[in-house]
Amino acid sequence: MSAIEQELTSQPALWRRAAQLPALAALPRRGGRIAVLGCGTSLYIAQAYARSREAAGHGETDAFPASEFPSGRRYEGVLAISRSGTTTEVLQAVTALDGHAPTTLLTAVADSPLARAATHTVALPFADEHSVVQTRFATTALVVLLAALGIDTAPAAAAAERVLAGPLPLDPAAFERFHFLGSGWTVGLAAEGALKLREAARAWTESYPAMEYRHGPIATADARTLVVPFGPLDPALAADIRATGARVLDPDAEPLATLVLCHRLALALAVARGFDPDTPRNLTRSVVLT
């Protein structure tokens, strides 16, 4: 069994554990304007959390790629997400704050350069991974953040177990293009789903806010396209997509479970193409720049 296969199947149990963490008290609470920083997968988790925090009435929340954090903008707190705690752009952004705002790091590694630079650290070592491609750390980190907002993640864990127990609903090798659509907090999840297939299987993937799909991207849809929505689609949009001949996957009621399905599709497609999903081309566990 590959590392990524073992790690992605462990997610429901880790989510249940993460939702009960006493360390939630170190995370930003209701009120105040905060920024959330990350790179790659961590950026998409940051985007999902930012929309969720605002929707839950906990305060204005901006998400940025760490390399694009606006240095002149002031926040009451900054949350940085980094699995390894070594990501260069995140470390540079946190260091550049120079005490202007308290920083909380969400990571898998408690002893790291970022942990030493941050004001507070919430470590999830039980969710760390051997695989380069992130699965369980990212989703477990998001569950921690959602639980801190008072959102019940137990239904998502149960739905993910069902996704893992059943067969894949289709053969991903039958498709050439994969389009992922989200709305609200699931825009970040759609981007993350697309990234998984891109990293592990070198697939042609794209992601969009669902209603933006009509504005150009639908031109590339055809019978060799799989469209994966994170949540129900507008009926007219769904009809337009199906008219192209594209296959529209029925979304799970729990978007996190749909992301787990994307993990399974990425693994299956990588294996079908003869790739080692644990060692994706041109990628490393952490991006550390000189």
Report on the structure:
By secondary structure, the chain is of the alpha/beta class. The chain is 39% helix and 15% strand. The chain is built from 10 helices and 9 strands. The strands form 2 sheets. A 5-stranded parallel β-sheet has the order 2-1-3-4-5, sandwiched between helices. Strands 7-6-8-9 form a 4-stranded parallel β-sheet, with helices on both faces. The chain starts with a helix and ends in an 18-residue tail after the last helix. The mean pLDDT is 94.
What separation lies between the terminal Cα atoms? Answer: 34 Å
Gyration radius (Cα, Å) is 18 Å
Order of strands across the widest beta sheet? 2-1-3-4-5
Which stretches of 5+ consecutive residues score pLDDT under 50? Answer: none
Main sheet attributes: strand count, strand direction, barrel closure: 5 strands, parallel
Residue fraction in strands? 5-15%
Structural class: alpha/beta
The sequence of SSEs as H and E is: HHEHEEHEHEHHEHEEHEH
**Extended strand count:** 9
Query: Count the helices. How many?
Result: 10
Overall mean pLDDT score? 94
Overall shape: it is globular
| Helix fraction bin | 25-40%
Give me a quick take on this structure:
The chain has helices at 3-9, 11-18, 41-55, 88-97, 113-117, 136-148, 154-165, 186-201, 235-243, 255-272; strands spanning 34-38, 61-65, 77-81, 103-107, 120-123, 177-182, 204-209, 225-229, 247-248. The protein is an alpha/beta fold and 290 residues long.
